[in-house]
Design goal:
With 426 residues, this protein is mainly β. The protein contains 2 helices and 36 strands. About 3% of the residues have low confidence.
């Protein structure tokens, strides 16, 4: 009898001890971790936590729905079904539950639109503008027509086109630094740095302009949808509210010739600056410190953003207050309204120049095989299309209707030089 009582006591003691240990464990878990609950639009979708350092799956959560406890920090969760993928970033807070619902979206296929090698795409009211990379001409194409047409026959070869974000204004630049201003379908030679602005009546550059080296010292000229300009001249940054107004000095710090400059539709100027090692004739490879400086053209107020590497690109949102840029590892998003910076796309350092804004909340970008959509408000990334096999995207153009995207591609082969333009309806 005593032995049975002892056994019962031992069992009770063991059960209570285990229960106490489990209770302590769960209390510690509750006080040191937070919970993630995930639901998806498809019960077969696999839910995973993605390692931000590698972009690969680090933890399996479940299928269709699931929950997991995580240490405080920033994470990315993915819902995957076949090649359909949706990801969202989130923050885990101690003792709190974070809920996420991920929608599985059908993948679309871009349709071949033009058999042209093209770059610097821009679409407005179903008219596609681009640089013909074979002839270096400025072309436009209306789908109601049979072939693209040259916008202006008298133009020399165009090296670069700087489009205003969200607008239908552009600066066309030649290899000898002559700028042409495209506005309301018209093209005219422009002397950006002239004291009171100088706009020639047509696209024919007069003889005296030939001799005066118009714009010969201008670098990285940009125009916004309001017709304001920013540019680098002799290493200094200038801003012009309009062509007719005198240029205003923004900063006189000496910049390298390969500095990057971007002008927003609110008059904010973002430029990449470098602290050199002190030697002369320095290039970007000799840089010891890098930063992005943002200047308000109204009062020259400066905001500095640190960056690990020289950004491969910067791009302002159509509203002019959000800047997306690369830092060598991640794609970052700066909001000028509250001066905040966050990681928009983790482990996306391979992206170089291919992010385009659809609107103030949505942008699209390609990687080597897919086209993705990123929504700022929800911090969600969704795969929306497969890139045609054997092709690399070199330019994106979003139509002003926000429903159509054009992709210019080039073959992923050194033996084939001719690309194509594809159309994708969102």
């Amino acid at each position: 009898m005593n032995q049975q009582q002892e056994r019962r006591k031992l069992i009770i003691y063991t059960v209570l001890t285990v229960a106490a240990i489990l209770a302590i464990y769960w209390i510690i878990q509750f006080l040191t971790t937070g919970e993630l609950k995930v639901t998806t639009s498809n019960k077969s979708a696999e839910i995973n936590i993605i390692d931000p350092a590698t972009g690969k799956v680090s933890q399996f959560v479940g299928k269709g729905s699931g929950s997991i406890r995580l240490k405080p920090g920033t994470y990315t969760v993915e819902a995957k079904l076949d090649d359909r993928i949706t990801r969202t970033g989130f923050e885990i807070v101690t003792s709190k539950t974070t809920s996420k619902n991920l929608q599985i979206t059908d993948i679309k296929s871009p349709n071949q639109f033009l058999y042209y090698s093209a770059s610097h795409l821009h679409a407005k009211d179903n008219i596609l503008y681009f640089r013909n990379d074979s002839t270096r001409e400025f072309n436009k194409f209306n789908s109601s027509e049979s072939e693209p047409t040259v916008v202006e026959e008298s133009l020399p070869e165009i090296s670069t086109i700087h489009w205003a974000t969200g607008g239908n204004l552009a600066l066309l630049e030649t290899s000898d630094n002559i700028f042409y201003y495209f506005e309301d379908g018209k093209i005219r030679v422009v002397d950006i740095s002239a004291p009171n602005g100088l706009l020639y009546p047509d696209s024919s550059k007069p003889d005296e302009a030939e001799e005066s080296d118009v714009n010969s010292q201008i670098l990285h000229a940009q125009v916004n949808e309001l017709g304001a300009f920013a540019f680098i001249e002799e290493g200094k940054v200038f801003y012009k509210p309009s062509l007719a107004e005198k240029a205003k000095l923004v900063t006189n710090r000496q910049l390298l010739s390969d500095s990057i400059l971007e002008l927003s539709n609110k008059g904010l100027i973002a430029l990449v600056t470098y602290e050199s090692l002190g030697q002369e004739n320095i290039t970007s490879k000799d840089i010891s410190k890098r930063a992005i400086e943002i200047y308000n053209s109204k009062n020259n107020e400066k905001t500095t953003l640190s960056t690990k590497e020289i950004p491969g690109f910067m791009s302002w949102s159509p509203g002019g207050d959000k800047l997306v840029y690369s830092d060598g590892q991640n794609i970052m998003l700066y909001n000028d309204n509250d001066k905040s910076t966050k990681i928009a796309l983790g482990n996306r350092g391979e992206l170089s120049t291919f992010i385009s804004w659809i609107n103030d909340d949505t942008m699209i970008f390609p990687d080597k095989t897919s086209l993705w959509k990123y929504e700022v408000a929800s911090n969600t990334t969704t795969k929306i299309a497969n890139i045609p096999a054997g092709m690399l995207v070199q330019s994106l153009g979003v139509d002003s209707n926000e429903k159509t995207v054009f992709l210019s591609t080039k073959p992923n082969s050194r033996f084939d030089a001719f690309g194509n333009v594809y159309r994708l309806d969102l």
